[in-house]
Write a structure and sequence with these properties.
disordered C terminus; NA-bd_OB-fold; single chain; five-stranded mixed β-barrel; six-stranded antiparallel beta sheet; about 15% helix; OB fold (Dihydrolipoamide Acetyltransferase, E2P); alpha+beta; 5 helices
C-alpha cells in the first residue's frame, strides 16, 4: 500500500501568515458566487470561515464549485486537502487556491455555522467605513447618487457604474442588467445587502447574485462633494499612458443596448440573439473602450498597471496621451482638458 500523504494543517484560519504550497484547512463556506466563465477557463471565488477568522478561496474547476455549493447549501463544514495559500490578489493578506488535486470532504469539526453566517450578514455602514470591511463582506448604506456613468456591455450583460456619496465620503457601486436604470442623480437610496469588492486597493460595492436591494428613501441631506476636477488634474500629473493593447469603438442598440453591427447603409443590426432589430445605424449611441498600460507614481516609486477605461473617461485619457505626444506641458494639458 502507498504511504498516506500528509499536509501541513491549518488549525485556525487566523494562523495563516504566509504562503504554504500544500495544506489542509477546515471551515464553513459563507459566500460562494456562481462560476464565472472566461475566454479560456472557468473561475470562481468565495469565502471560508471558522470561529477565528475568514479567508478568500479561489478555484478553476466548475465541479469543485458545485461540490462546495452542496456543503454550503446544506450548512455543512468542509475540509480542504491539498490546497495552496498564496498572497491575495485583492490586496493585503492571503487567499486559498484550490488545485486540480484538491480534495473536498465533510469536516469532522463541529462549527456554529448559523453564527458564522450572521457575522457575515450585511453591516450598516457609512462610506468612509468601507475600507475597514473585507472583500465579500455584505454592507448596507444610505447614500445619494451624484453621478451616473455610461451604461456598458460586459460579458453580454448590461452594467453601470454609479458614484454615490454620503456625509462621510464617496464611493463607486456597480449595478447590473435590470437595475442599470433604477437610480437617478441627486436622489437618495438605501443600498441593502450589497457585496464589498476591491480593485487596485480601492473598495467598492456591487450587487450580489441574490439578496441585494435598491430602495428609494427620503433625501439624506448634505453629502461630500465629488472633487472631479481635482481627480482629473491628479490623473494628468501622476499617470502616463505607455501603451494601448486594445481599443474598441462600437454602437449600441436603441432597444436593448447590445452591440450593433453595420449593414447596408443606413442600417445596422443588433447582435443580441433575442433582439436582432434593424435600426438607423447613425442614430445609435457610440461607445469607446480601451485597455491601457499606465505608469504612475506611488510615494516616489514608479509602478505600472493595466486598466480598462470606458466612454468619457477613455476619451479623456486618450486625449491626454495625444497631448503629451505633441509635447504639451502638464499646465497646458490642464487648460486644454476637454
Amino acid at each position: 500500500m502507498g504511504k498516506k500523504r500528509s499536509y501541513e494543517e491549518i488549525e485556525n484560519i487566523d494562523e495563516v501568515n504566509g504562503p504554504i504550497s500544500s495544506t489542509q484547512v477546515h471551515g464553513a463556506i459563507i459566500s460562494l458566487p456562481p462560476v464565472k466563465r472566461g475566454r479560456k477557463s472557468v473561475f470562481f471565488d468565495g469565502m471560508l470561515a471558522d470561529e477565528s477568522s475568514k479567508i478568500r478561496l479561489v478555484g478553476f474547476d466548475a465541479q469543485q464549485q458545485r461540490k462546495l455549493n452542496e456543503y454550503h447549501q446544506n450548512n455543512v463544514p468542509v475540509q480542504l486537502l491539498n490546497c495552496e495559500v498564496k498572497p491575495s490578489r485583492q490586496g493585503e493578506g492571503y487567499e486559498l487556491m484550490l488545485k486540480n488535486g484538491t480534495q473536498i470532504k465533510q469536516s469532522p469539526k463541529k462549527m456554529d455555522i448559523a453564527s458564522l453566517m450572521v457575522d457575515a450578514a450585511a453591516k450598516v455602514v457609512t462610506l468612509d467605513e468601507l475600507d475597514g470591511l473585507e472583500v465579500f463582506d455584505r454592507a448596507t448604506v444610505n447614500v445619494k447618487v451624484v453621478e451616473l456613468k455610461e451604461e456598458m456591455q460586459v460579458g453580454g450583460k448590461s452594467k453601470r457604474d454609479i458614484i454615490i456619496a454620503d456625509g462621510s465620503g464617496t464611493a463607486r457601486v456597480s449595478v447590473w442588467e435590470g437595475h442599470v436604470n433604477t437610480m437617478e442623480e441627486n436622489t437618495s437610496y438605501c443600498l441593502k445587502d450589497f457585496m464589498v469588492r476591491e480593485f487596485q486597493s480601492t473598495k467598492y460595492l456591487t450587487m450580489a447574485k441574490e439578496g441585494s436591494r435598491i430602495i428609494a428613501i427620503d433625501d439624506i441631506g448634505g453629502v461630500v462633494e465629488q472633487t472631479k476636477e481635482d481627480e482629473e488634474l491628479l490623473l494628468i500629473q501622476n499617470v502616463s499612458i505607455v501603451g494601448i493593447p486594445y481599443l474598441d469603438t462600437y454602437k449600441s442598440c436603441l432597444k436593448c443596448k447590445a452591440r450593433v453591427e453595420p449593414q447596408t447603409p443606413p442600417l445596422g443590426k443588433c447582435s443580441k440573439a433575442d433582439c436582432m432589430m434593424l435600426q438607423r445605424y447613425d442614430l445609435c449611441t457610440e461607445h469607446t473602450s480601451a485597455k491601457l498600460m499606465l505608469m504612475y507614481d506611488d510615494e516616489g516609486e514608479r509602478k505600472s498597471v493595466q486598466a480598462y477605461a470606458y466612454g468619457e473617461v477613455c476619451v479623456k485619457l486618450l486625449v491626454v496621451a495625444i497631448y503629451r505626444l505633441k509635447g504639451y506641458s502638464k499646465e497646458e494639458i490642464s487648460h486644454r482638458w476637454p
